[in-house]
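Protocol step 4 of 5: obtain the predicted structure for the target chain.
Materials: sequence only (see below). No template structures provided, no constraints applied. The aim of this step is simply to have a reference model before the mutagenesis design in step 5. Sequence pasted as it appears in the construct record:
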Amino acid sequence: MMGAFAEFERNIIRKRQAEGIAKAKAKGVYAKRGASINIEKIRELQKEGLTITAIARALDISRMSVYRINKQN
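Step 4 output (structure tokens):
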């Protein structure tokens, strides 16, 4: 019986959450997080001849992030 109540309560919470997200989207508040890595800066540093490790250290990001951006373009 307790499981049935818990499931019912969870469904109510889910509905409220969906309603809140819909309202936020309508206001234009609910959006993806902005990019934190400046791709142009990475390109600039690569043209200067810096290594992946040096670029990562200069921008305080991981080497994997630099590799991922290189792979995208």
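Step 4 remarks: The radius of gyration is 22 Å. Residues 34-73 form a domain with the Arc Repressor Mutant, subunit A fold (CATH 1.10.10).
Proceed to step 5.
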